[in-house]
Design a protein that fits this description.
Elements: H1 2-10, H2 12-19, H3 36-58, H4 64-94, H5 99-124, H6 129-150, H7 156-175, H8 178-181, H9 189-218, H10 224-257
Helix pairs in contact: 1-4, 2-3, 3-4, 3-10, 4-5, 4-10, 5-6, 5-9, 6-7, 7-9, 9-10
The structure holds retinal.
The site of retinal has 18 residues, from helix 5, helix 6, helix 7, helix 9 and helix 10.
């Protein structure tokens, strides 16, 4: 897996160039100037493309063991960019919430973020592969619960409870489970800070998503505008900003090694 990802790093430059080519360029409907949700979809689509090109190109600058992390960050923003093109079109043309594209995106990008977390843990100390799979199971429970609730297969409250249970399990794993118990003393400062950033992201950054769900379905004033704007903001933080943090650690560690 890791070897494969490293090979992909070599393909990074052509891939980055390709990713700049729009996957969908239809303009079924004009973006209305007061459609702020639509505008947020547009802004974030473009930011995700720029971030993808940046992460892939920067693999050239960091030392070998950090290349994989940057490739994974670039894959997260690339997969999300393509989904944002589609979500944006659905929203602008119909005003509907693009739930199915949203969850297909999460089904790919959240496991990729788990790969990223696993790589950070490995940079600190020896970890078993088991932890990776446990994080993955928590992710699946979280997303299946959320999707079933949003798509109407089960009640929104039940979907919320199942989703929260999956997320709680992930938090347990990284705070109290094997990952939480890891002795991080020998790791360099910057890697330790990446580890604590990872915990903050999964706790605070990810907490924005259930908030979106609550304001989209569970309050008096619940609306699809709130749902989409909150999910979109959460993606900027958890996909782009998180990638930038990993990038800054990668650059700092690579410069030191020179
Ligand atoms: C790039 C996309 C990311 C990091 C998506 C993360 C999504 C979540 C953390 C979703 C969590 C949910 C709950 C904790 C309960 C309600 C249902 C969800 C799926 C919105």
């Amino acid at each position: 897996m890791i070897k494969m990802l490293n090979k992909m790093a070599k393909l990074a430059v052509p891939a980055a160039a390709l990713s700049v080519v729009p996957a969908v360029a239809s303009a079924a409907e004009n973006l209305a100037q007061d459609d702020f949700v639509g505008i947020s979809f547009w802004l974030i689509s473009m930011a995700l493309i720029a971030a993808t090109a940046f992460f892939f190109l920067e693999t050239q600058r960091v030392s070998a063991k950090w290349k994989t992390s940057l490739v994974v960050s670039g894959l997260v923003t690339m997969v999300a960019a393509v989904h944002y093109f589609y979500m944006r079109d659905v929203w602008v043309a119909t005003g509907d919430t693009p739930t199915v594209y949203r969850y297909i995106d999460w089904l790919i990008t959240v496991p990729l973020l788990m790969v990223e977390f696993y790589l950070i843990l490995r940079a600190i100390t020896k970890v078993s592969g088991g932890i990776f799979w446990r994080l993955m199971i928590g992710t699946l429970v979280m997303l299946v619960g959320g999707y079933a609730g949003e798509a109407g297969y089960i009640g929104v409250t039940l979907g919320f409870i199942i989703g929260m249970a999956g997320w709680a399990y992930i938090l347990y794993e990284i705070f109290a489970g094997e990952a939480g118990k890891l002795n991080a003393n020998e790791a360099p400062e910057s890697v330790k800070s990446a580890f604590s950033t990872m915990r903050w992201i999964v706790t605070i950054g990810w907490a924005i998503y259930p908030l979106g769900y609550v304001f989209g379905y569970m309050t008096e004033s619940a609306s699809m505008e709130s749902l989409n704007v909150i999910y979109n903001l959460a993606d900027v933080l958890n996909k782009i900003a998180f990638g930038v943090i990993i990038w800054s650690v990668a650059v700092a560690e690579s410069e030191k090694a020179k």
